[in-house]
Amino acid sequence: MRIDLDANATTPVLPEVLDAMRPFFCERHGNPSSAHQSGRQARGALEMARIAVASLLRCEAKEIVFTSGGTESDNLALCGVLQPFLDRHEPAHLITTDIEHHAVLFAAQSLEKRGREATGLLEVTYLRPNADGVIDPADFEAALRPHTRLVSVMLANNETGAIQPVGKLARIAKDYAEKNSTSIFVHTDAVQGAGKMQLDLSGEFKNVDLLSVSGHKIYGPQGTGALFVRKGVELAPLFHGGPHERQRRAGTENVPGIVGLGRAAQLAQEWLAGDGPRHLAALHARFEAALLSAIPGASVNAASAPRVSNTTNLRIDGINAEPLLISLDLHGIAASFGSACTSGAAEASHVLLGMGMTPAQANASLRFSLSRLTTGEEIDRALEIIPAAVAQIRTVR
Ligand code: PLP
Question: Domain-by-domain residue ranges, the chain?
Answer without folding.
Answer: 3-12+275-396, 15-271
